[in-house]
């Protein structure tokens, strides 16, 4: 196999797991913010979950995400 069997998150020290988790969370937040901004600028709709229901937001209804997402 290309990846050794012992390689994986479960074999990482807890501190490294936590660091990896924070990096993943940050990356997801940045990616979502970028996708929302792209939809907003292009006027494309998105679907969101609000009060137990699916709601469609038009591009102009998508809120601007703060510039500090990547920090």
Q: In a nutshell, what does this entry contain?
A:
The protein has one helix at 14-42; strands at residues 46-50, 53-57.
Describe, in plain words, how this protein is organized in 3D:
The protein has one helix spanning 14-42; strands at 46-50, 53-57. It has 71 residues and is of the alpha+beta class. The termini are far apart. The chain has a two-stranded antiparallel sheet.
Question: Over all CA atoms, what is the radius of gyration?
Answer: 18 Å
N- to C-terminal distance: 37 Å
Q: Structural class, from secondary structure content? A: alpha+beta
Give me the count of strands: 2
What profile does the largest beta sheet have? 2 strands, antiparallel
Overall shape: it is: elongated
Low-confidence stretches: none
Helix content: 40-55%
Strand-and-helix sequence, N→C? Answer: HEE
Number of helices: 1
Average pLDDT score: 85
As laid out across the biggest beta sheet, the strand order is 1-2
Q: Into which percentage range does the β-strand content fall?
A: 5-15%
């Amino acid at each position: 196999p290309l990846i050794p069997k012992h390689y994986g998150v479960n074999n990482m020290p807890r501190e490294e797991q936590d660091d990896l988790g924070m990096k993943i969370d940050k990356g997801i937040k940045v990616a979502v913010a970028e996708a929302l901004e792209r939809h907003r600028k292009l006027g494309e709709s998105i679907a969101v979950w609000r009060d137990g229901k699916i709601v469609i937001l038009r591009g102009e209804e998508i809120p601007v995400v703060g510039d500090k997402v990547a920090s």
